[in-house]
Structures are given as structure tokens and as C-alpha cells.
Amino acid sequence: MTRMFAAMSDRLLSAVLKEQTAGACVPEHGTYCKCSGGYKYIYSCNGPCVKTTTRC
């Protein structure tokens, strides 16, 4: 029962935060990914492309 609640809370937290914090970043962390909607996207610590406040 405890595992079920832990799994549910992890899913809820990941839905809210949209990203998990890792102990070590991927090698691409911080490098340019794409330009979309006038904003620069970079690779986050976990690897997905995230929007920045920097215009491109």
C-alpha cells in the first residue's frame, strides 16, 4: 500500500514540475536546441528541450 502511495505521489509531482532533478546532468546540458516562437530552447539537465527567456 505504501508503494502505491509513493508511486502516485511521484506521478503527481512529476506532472506538476514537468521535470525531475537528476544527480548529474547530460553532456548536452545548456546547449542550444532550437528556436521556436521567438524564444531560444536549450537542453535541460535531464535532456529535454526547455524554453528560456532569451529571444532568438
> How is the main sheet built?
3 strands, antiparallel
Which structural category fits the helices and strands? alpha+beta
Individual helix count: 1
List the quaternary state of the chains. single chain
For the termini, the CA-CA separation is 49 Å
Shape assignment: elongated
The average pLDDT is: 77
Strand content: 25-35%
Sequence of strands across the biggest β-sheet: 1-2-3
Helix content: 25-40%
Low-pLDDT ranges:
none
C-alpha-based Rg, rounded: 15 Å
The tally of beta strands, per DSSP, is 3
Q: Helices and strands, in N-to-C order?
A: HEEE
How would you describe the overall organization of this protein?
By secondary structure, this protein is an alpha+beta fold. The chain contains one helix and three strands; from the N terminus they run αβββ. It has one helix at residues 2-17; strands spanning 32-36, 39-43, 49-55. The chain has a three-stranded antiparallel beta sheet with strand order 1-2-3, with no helix packed on it. The model has no long low-confidence stretch (mean pLDDT 77).
What is this structure, in a nutshell?
The chain is α+β, with helices and mostly antiparallel strands and 56 residues long. Helix content is 29%, strand content 30%. Strand 2 and strand 3 (49-55) form a beta hairpin.
Spell out the key features of this protein.
29% helix, alpha+beta, single chain, 56 residues, 3 strands, three-stranded antiparallel β-sheet
Protein topology:
Layout (H helix, E strand, L loop, with lengths): L1 H16 L14 E5 L2 E5 L5 E7 L1
Antiparallel strand pairs: 1-2, 2-3
